[in-house]
Design a protein that fits this description.
The protein has 255 residues and is of the alpha/beta class. It has 10 helices and 8 strands. An 8-stranded parallel barrel has the order 1-2-3-4-5-6-7-8, surrounded by 6 helices. The N and C termini lie far apart (58 Å).
Length: 255
Amino acid sequence: MKAEGEKIAVLTAYDFPFARMMDLAGIDMILVGDSVGSVVSGYDHTLPVTMDEMIYHTRAVVRGTGSALVVTDMPFLSYQVDVRDARLNAGRLIKEGGAQAVKLEGGTNMAETIRAITAMDIPVVGHIGLTPQSIHRMGGFRVQGRHAEQARQLLADARAVEEAGAFALVMEGIPAPLAREITAAVEIPTIGIGAGVDCDGQVLVIHDILGLCEKYSPKFVKQFADVSGTISQGISDYISEVKGGTFPDEEHSFK
């Protein structure tokens, strides 16, 4: 798709219904993100998410997917401690979760780990820039690569991830000109989130684009539908009819 100039559309999913709708709509790739911790479980960040949680959500997404490529995030501490753990946990996401690839955060510091996982014939997606599992080092969710030294490091990170064997690269929260430079410098597809239009593809969180996440509103998010309003109205109508004694009526009762 990169070679042919076709943009790659990616969304996150954490359950069967959303995965099914995305797949039928023709999404190219579904990311089972550890963002499930913030979006679904209510955590302040992704760090508490466990391997068991990622496997559970991956299974649900895979059951709803027929043609999209399913990539699953490796959660915090599932690959940073040592290469053996990384290989084992990547294998679990494929074997138990049913994913077709895994994603992990980091650049030059994770090249050895990426190389070890791809040596097991497990496809890997890299992730550089604003890496949510590193929020304590970064001081929060901050744009990365605005300064020359940071920009040089991110370019080195992208090249290291590619050389280590990753087949695609997520770039999050970096200036658009830098994302354009990195996209031109690597042969693998780049998937942007808050990285401008010149990436080879884009990824957003499904709850964000549907107006279902009230905790955060990043600059790079565009809301494509207000599903939250529709759901809230439906819940209010249900409560009113139950309390008013108009539901269930004869149509919704058995004789």
